[in-house]
């Protein structure tokens, strides 16, 4: 998909750059594969804000996406590529030979009419899903499982991918786009190819209202608040907020490491995504 720019006939269109979605399906999604989606507004079950800057936005239908790809050794034909308001990637409606329809995350270079299949040993082409045990080393993959049978969790956002770089015992080594090198069990499934909509990060939304339509509220910097509202607040004139940036609750932020190194999954990370920064 290409990018689409606009003539500056209004202030909101000056600099506006959006994704050209003219090739996507223009109708409604398949009703049987959708669910209602309740807005939370960033609140938890006690009604308190646990995630700031959320609220409002256009009403959405949730599309039930098949992240597990458990229908093995049965071909499916891509019926159409659709827009999904709940994620940055596009989704593809596929129809299996037994008539069942499912949504999957659409990879790049997957077109209407293409055939896809998942199984223990299938062809290495975009949209096909297989475990790492039957995959050649060097394959570009997405929608990667962390635990066998749990469904894909890694590399699901627009334009993301990982590379299968090696085997070690019962584990597969994958290099993520963040630079992290980690291991997952070879029984874990992954889908061949990179995720669709790689130009998503090159958009310029043009005006604040478009963010409000997405359900994103304005973010106010701590340095413009009062001392009662934020640790960076107050001071005479314009201040930088101090030497160490913190959250409103005093926790270090903007680059401070928050991962618990005692997690059991820590041993599966061969090289951290921060490894390149240590040389500075």
From TrEMBL:
Composition bias, Basic residues: 254-280
Keywords in alphabetical order: Ribonucleoprotein, Ribosomal protein, RNA-binding, rRNA-binding
GO MF, one annotated term: structural constituent of ribosome
Domain Large ribosomal subunit protein uL2 RNA-binding, chain residue ranges per copy: 42-118
Ranges for region Disordered: 224-280
Residue span(s) of domain Large ribosomal subunit protein uL2 C-terminal: 124-252
InterPro entries: NA-bd_OB-fold, Rib_uL2_dom2, Ribosomal_uL2, Ribosomal_uL2_bac/org-type, Ribosomal_uL2_C, Ribosomal_uL2_CS, Ribosomal_uL2_dom3, Ribosomal_uL2_RNA-bd_dom
Record-level GO BP terms: cytoplasmic translation
GO CC field: large ribosomal subunit
Highest taxon of the lineage: Bacteria
Classification via NCBIfam families: rplB_bact (TIGR01171)
Purpose of the protein: One of the primary rRNA binding proteins. Required for association of the 30S and 50S subunits to form the 70S ribosome, for tRNA binding and peptide bond formation. It has been suggested to have peptidyltransferase activity; this is somewhat controversial. Makes several contacts with the 16S rRNA in the 70S ribosome.
Subunit structure: Part of the 50S ribosomal subunit. Forms a bridge to the 30S subunit in the 70S ribosome.
Membership in a protein family: Belongs to the universal ribosomal protein uL2 family.
Protein name per Swiss-Prot or TrEMBL: Large ribosomal subunit protein uL2
The organism of origin for this protein: Palleronia caenipelagi
Phylogenetic lineage: Bacteria, Pseudomonadati, Pseudomonadota, Alphaproteobacteria, Rhodobacterales
Gene name of the record: rplB
């Amino acid at each position: 998909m290409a990018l689409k720019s606009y003539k500056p006939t209004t202030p909101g269109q000056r600099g506006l750059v959006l994704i050209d979605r003219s090739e996507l399906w223009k109708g409604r999604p398949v009703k049987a594969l959708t669910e209602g989606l309740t807005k939370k507004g960033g609140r938890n079950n006690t009604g308190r804000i646990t995630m700031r800057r959320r609220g409002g936005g256009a009403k959405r239908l949730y599309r039930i996406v098949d992240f597990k790809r458990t229908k093995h050794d049965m071909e499916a034909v891509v019926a159409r590529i659709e827009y999904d308001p709940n994620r940055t990637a596009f989704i593809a409606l596929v129809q299996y030979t037994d008539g069942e329809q499912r949504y999957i995350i659409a990879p790049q270079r997957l077109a209407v009419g293409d055939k896809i299949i998942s199984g223990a040993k299938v062809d290495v082409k975009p949209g096909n899903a297989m475990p790492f045990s039957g995959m050649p080393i060097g394959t570009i993959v997405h929608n990667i499982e962390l635990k066998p049978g749990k469904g894909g969790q890694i590399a699901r956002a627009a334009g993301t991918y990982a590379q299968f770089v090696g085997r070690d015992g019962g584990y597969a080594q994958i290099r993520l786009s963040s630079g992290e090198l980690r291991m997952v069990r070879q029984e874990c499934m992954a889908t061949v190819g990179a995720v669709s909509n790689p130009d998503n990060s090159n958009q310029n939304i043009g005006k604040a209202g478009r963010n409000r339509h997405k359900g994103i509220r304005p973010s106010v910097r701590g340095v413009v608040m009062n001392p009662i509202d934020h640790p960076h607040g107050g001071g005479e004139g314009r201040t930088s907020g101090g030497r160490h940036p913190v959250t409103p609750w005093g926790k270090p932020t903007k680059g401070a490491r928050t991962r618990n190194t005692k997690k059991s999954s820590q041993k599966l990370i061969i090289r951290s995504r921060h490894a390149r920064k240590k040389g500075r």
